[in-house]
Amino acid sequence: MDDFISTLPCVDSWRHKHLLGLESLSAEDITLLLDVADRFRTICKSAKNKLNLLSGKTVCTLFFENSTRTRSSFTLAAQRLGASVLAFAAGTSSMSKGETVVDTARNIEAMGVDSFVVRHNMPGAPKLISENASGCVLNAGDGAHAHPTQALLDILTIRQRLGTLEGKTVALVGDIAHSRVARSNIWGLKKLGAKVILCGPSTLVSSEWAKIGVEYSYSLDEILPNVDVLNLLRIQFERQQSRPFPSVREYELLYTMNARRLAKAKKDVLIIAPGPINRGVEVTAEVADGPQSAIIDQVTNGLAVRMAALWLTDLRRDGE
Ligand code: ASP
């Protein structure tokens, strides 16, 4: 294992105690995190290959919203690095007695927690905790605001398959308006030199990102022949105030990625999706399970990215 540790990239340039979003990271920071994740990927699949980079540390997964992949992979990532994990269950906690998020975090921290992995439906909740607790804070999704580790694993998957992000065209398709995955992808992809196209119904795609050079389109069929990657986003019904289109059937006719549409795309187009996928809505089963799809591979990369994020932030725990 010592041999493995000596193969990790030099991390002297990493300065961040928290990982709250990708907007504040430089292209060099993102590249370093991806490089570290790439190394972890080679060993992280097997529990037998446990590292001791975080031994003696405790990571608390503080989830106030449901999760399958993010919570499990942060838990496994911490364990693979040798840390103990405390899983906080919001539903059975004293939050129901009126305790605030900050008081909850500070009380848990008093038991000896080093890092918090926070998911909350309120944008800014992880930042608030980072300002009021002393441990590292990693944002595992805050409302429609940001989901940095999801974007990093998406970008890592693209980099592994296409070699680079520079000059590649990535379309984010679906519910851009309510998607924290879209926001974090936009920042990360733009910083690494990709061209980003947002695509979906006009009720879910706005031109607000044009100021940082992001393009937008309401027609998937029109952009298909020109894209290298399609990131298919779930319609976030739980975050919408009103229905953005008459029925799922209308959405399907214009935006579902199916075999007919795939035939119009570049022959080596890469299909990714953050999950959970709703088969038949954003993507059909044949495309999701087909040869162009890297959806399951993304999940493996998620573990590696979260190991990298936990380790790098911990290295700077004495910083701001
Ligand atoms: N799992 C992702 C998230 O938590 C994507 C989704 O829910 O659609 O944002």
Please name the fourth-level CATH homologous superfamily of the largest domain.
Aspartate/ornithine carbamoyltransferase
Mean model confidence by pLDDT: 94
Determine and state the CATH class of the largest domain: Alpha Beta
Assign a percent range to the helix content: 25-40%
Which class best fits the helix and strand makeup?
alpha/beta
Shape assignment: globular
Unreliable stretches covering 5 or more consecutive residues? none
Number of domains: 2
Strand fraction: 5-15%
What is the secondary structure topology, with strand pairs?
Blueprint: H1 2-5, H2 27-44, E1 58-63, H3 69-80, E2 84-89, H4 101-109, E3 115-120, H5 125-132, E4 136-142, H6 148-162, E5 169-173, H7 180-191, E6 195-199, E7 215-217, H8 220-223, E8 229-232, H9 248-255, H10 259-262, E9 270-272, H11 285-288, H12 295-315
Parallel strand pairs: 1-2, 1-3, 3-4, 5-6, 5-8, 6-7, 8-9
Helix pairs in contact: 2-6, 2-12, 3-12, 4-5, 6-7, 6-12
Bound molecules: aspartic acid (ASP).
